[in-house]
Amino acid sequence: MLGQLKVKLFVVVSSWALLAFVAWHYESTCGVFFSAACASEYWSAIRWIVLLKWVAPYQTLLGGLAALAAGTFVLLAARATAAEAERTDNANRRRTAVVACSIVSDEFRDAAQPITNFADSAFRKPVVFPQTPSYLHVLHDIDPFLGSVVSAQKRNVEEYILATTYSHEARTRAIASCHIINHLLHLVAERLDSRGNFNLGRGTPLPSGHLDWVLRRIPCDPKSMVGLYALFDWEK
């Protein structure tokens, strides 16, 4: 942008200088261009320019131009500073979003292990989401729908863990929720835009990848996971 501005400024100044020279010569009575009779007038004009004798009659105009140039410089500097600040802010937001997705997805992955490995009678009710509550607001900033989905599934898993009675269906859904959210957050982290945002549920469904195989091993029919099934393209 600055390079293009310099080229345009050079063209404008050069065009003005040429027109000024032609106009001056038109008013002069010394004769044709570059004749011997005009040489002394050329030299006088050069001295007039080099010695800045032209400043006095045009000082008001030059002061206005200087003020305009200063204002333009301040405006461009302010825009550049604002753009750099925005880039820095966006980079920080995206970095925070990646960290939040990573931590919460890992806690959902880890939550599936005790539910899977212990029988209901031996279940020890671990605290499975120690850090997730601190990062839910970041997930809401990424996309409000994403934050709502993760919050709802966290609540479902905790309700199963804290329940006094258990059912095979509830256990299956709790394990499936853990795997789905883990997979979901990994995909979101990979697809964040420059501001750390992602439009979940209002764009192209995410690829299910190995998730279909994981759920069927539990076993859990992906279509039974209402509210989560539509987020994925189960053909990819």
Short description:
With 236 residues, the protein is an all-alpha fold.
Q: What does this protein structure show overall?
A:
The chain is mainly alpha-helical and 236 residues long. It contains seven helices and two strands, in the order H-H-H-H-H-H-E-H-E. The protein has helices spanning 2-27, 36-50, 59-117, 132-142, 144-162, 168-190, 211-217; strands spanning 206-207, 232-233. The protein has a two-stranded parallel sheet with strand order 1-2. Helix 3 (59-117) packs across helix 4 (132-142) and helix 5 runs antiparallel to helix 6. The chain is rod-shaped and about 110 Å long.
List the helices and strands and how they pair.
Elements: H1 2-27, H2 36-50, H3 59-117, H4 132-142, H5 144-162, H6 168-190, E1 206-207, H7 211-217, E2 232-233
What is the gyration radius calculated from CA atoms?
A: 36 Å
Beta-sheet strand percentage? under 5%
How much helix, percentage-wise, in residues? Answer: 55-70%
Shape: rod-shaped
Oligomeric nature of the chains = single chain
Please mark out the parts with pLDDT under 50 across 5 or more consecutive residues, or reply none: none
Q: How many strand elements? A: 2
Main pleated-sheet profile: 2 strands, parallel
End-to-end separation in angstroms reads 43 Å
Mean pLDDT: 83
Strand order of the largest sheet: 1-2
Q: Enumerate how many helices there are, as a single number.
A: 7
Q: Write down the secondary-structure element order.
A: HHHHHHEHE
Helical/strand content category: mainly alpha
